[in-house]
Write a structure and sequence with these properties.
The complex is a heterodimer of chains A (113) and B (113). Chain A is mainly beta and 113 residues long. Chain A has no helices and eleven strands. Chain B contains no helices and eleven strands. The chains are: A mainly beta (113), B mainly beta (113).
């Protein structure tokens, strides 16, 4: 069965450093991969989408890579700030028919001053 | 632009009782989703509507859960009777056909005692 893995343990980093979060998947062939941010008590908020034929996507301090051979996406936040502390979810989209997202369990990021 | 609205924000019920959640998507969004998010996990799709028709309800426990989207705008999700394992946050999301990102509401936190 399809499986999406994100680090279940929280990632603790210091302000100003680069945070790198990992999303690995098996038994799945996504055409798109999305990253969402979720704060406590709130719904997820869309951050970035990357297509299967794109290797890298950037938006301000965010960078996403997508390696369909390794079946892995990396999500980077450069010059991290305490306000970046949240849970980050990756979601896979097969891209055929009606859109259907399958979410990972999320990784909690804690940025300390 | 107004976001996705959900109510109530919190609900506490006893097992075997019934409960209903309401969602009003972003104006003009044809696709509406209901997700269940158990603590520490990512959102899991329960049902997906395209306008007022169901396109995916494969993970909806149909013996106790039901949902409708009359007139293709707002939607209600009902649980009857509730079980302890239904304790979770119920998220509503919507999307337009032009974009693949989903917009989430704040969720309803359900506690079943």
């Amino acid at each position: 069965s399809q499986k999406i893995e994100q680090n279940s343990e929280a990632l603790n980093i210091q302000e100003g450093k680069t945070a790198t979060l990992t999303c690995n998947y098996t038994n799945y062939s996504p055409a798109y991969l999305q990253w969402y941010r979720q704060d406590p008590g709130r719904g997820p908020v869309f951050l970035l989408l990357i297509r299967e034929n794109e290797k890298e996507k950037r938006k301000e301090r965010l960078k996403v890579t997508f390696d369909t051979t390794l079946k892995q996406s990396l999500f980077h936040i450069t010059a991290s700030q305490p306000a970046d502390s949240a849970t980050y979810l990756c979601a896979l989209d097969r891209g055929t028919g009606f859109q259907k997202l399958v979410f990972g369990t999320g990784t909690r990021l804690l940025v300390s001053p | 632009e107004a976001g996705v609205a959900q109510s109530p924000r919190y609900k506490i019920i006893e097992k075997r009782q019934s409960v209903a959640f309401w969602c009003n998507p972003i104006s003009g969004h044809a696709t509406l989703y209901w997700y269940q998010q158990i603590l520490g996990q990512g959102p899991k799709l329960l049902i997906q509507f395209q306008n007022n028709g169901v396109v995916d309800d494969s993970q909806l426990p149909k013996d106790r859960f039901s949902a409708e989207r009359l007139k293709g705008v707002d939607s209600t999700l009902k649980i009857q009777p509730a079980k302890l394992e239904d304790s979770a946050v119920y998220l509503c999301a919507s999307s337009s056909s032009a974009l693949r990102e989903q917009f989430f509401g704040p969720g309803t936190r359900l506690t079943v005692l």
